[in-house]
Design brief:
By secondary structure, this protein is an alpha+beta fold. 28% of the residues lie in helices and 27% in strands. Among the domains are: 15-68 and 229-287, no CATH class; 102-191, Alpha-Beta Plaits. It has eight helices and ten strands. A hairpin with a 2-residue loop joins strand 1 and strand 2. It starts with 14 loop residues before the first helix and ends in a 21-residue tail after the last strand.
């Protein structure tokens, strides 16, 4: 019996960069059923209660993505980098923090303590985190508490210098202490609020600042998990079904909710390419949980409810 040769599946490494056109043209529509497309790879990314699904084509032969050489190329790449940075921060927040429990802190400076530069402002936050850890260590019930945080330092806006301040998301268990430990000005706090897309709005806000010194734009604690789980499948979606979803010939909600039990469809973005066939589907879903009564206080500051 002859051995069947295994077919190699080729996927564009930078598929998000390739599929950047949002308007469906006749050429895009004709390319959806390109015979060179073998199928669709479906990447599922679980981040806490939020599920992201990325579906994109693969081929039996390698595809070379042609790149525009005009001046708009660098701008497009910069925009893509910013989008991916926002995605990464949102995923960190969705995976590691809880609504109505963990904190969103804002730390500002009084005139006496305004830092002379960005480096000094960052040092102020490092010292604050040290005080947080020291306080936790001194409390018997929090001695083994694993502090998690992600903060940003804002010192410019639209290229112009502004009064330095900080935003932090943290699981620090005492709201009043989290404010009191800041000794350089005012501190305010709120319980985290999520939406159908988890902490998407907050994550995008945190990394809105751009600049040479803030290229990364955020500082996470080393113990933050990147995501709960990631799976990849080449059998969940056929070329023909993907084409029908992209052209709205069939409803995406029913298909994806059947594909992912206990998750509710929230939104889908479809992108096309001028260089390769097929479409890129980006779907956002939310786990179906028992509704929370947001009108009542869920957690007391000193409740011994830790999460490692």
């Amino acid at each position: 019996m002859k051995n069947k040769q295994r077919k190699v599946k080729h996927v564009l490494a930078a598929y998000e960069e390739a599929f950047c056109e949002s308007e469906l043209t006749k050429a895009h529509e004709d390319s959806l059923l390109d015979r060179a497309i073998t199928g669709y790879r479906v990447k599922s990314i679980w981040c806490g209660p939020v599920l992201e699904v990325e579906a994109y084509p693969y081929w039996e032969i390698p595809q070379k993505k042609r790149v525009k050489t005009d001046k708009n190329s660098s701008k497009a790449q910069e925009k893509l980098n910013e989008k991916n940075r926002q995605k990464h921060v949102v995923r960190l927040l969705n995976t590691n923090f809880r609504p109505l429990h963990d904190l969103y802190m804002t730390y500002t400076y009084s005139d006496k303590y305004v830092p002379k530069d960005y480096e000094q402002a960052k040092k102020d936050m490092s010292n604050l985190i040290k005080r947080m850890k020291y306080w936790l260590k001194k409390q018997e019930k929090y001695a083994d508490f694993e502090l998690k945080y992600l903060y940003t330092t804002e010192h410019t806006r639209n290229g112009e210098k502004v009064r330095a301040h900080h935003h932090m998301v943290t699981n620090f268990p005492n709201r009043e202490v989290a404010e009191a430990l800041w000794n350089s000005g005012r501190a305010s706090s709120d319980r985290l609020e999520d939406s159908d897309f988890g902490f998407k709005k907050l994550g995008e806000y945190l990394v809105k600042e751009k600049g040479e010194k803030t290229r990364k734009g955020y500082t996470p604690s080393r113990n933050l998990e990147k995501h709960t789980k990631v799976t990849v499948s080449d059998t969940k979606l056929t070329r023909r079904r993907a084409a029908k979803i992209a052209t709205e010939e069939i409803g995406a909600q029913e298909i994806f909710e059947k594909m992912y039990k206990n998750y509710q469809f929230k939104q889908m973005n479809v992108s096309f390419s001028d260089y390769v066939g097929g479409a890129y589907l980006y779907v956002q879903m939310k786990r179906i949980d028992t509704p929370i009564n947001r009108k009542r206080r869920i957690i007391n500051d000193d409740e011994d409810d830790q999460r490692n």
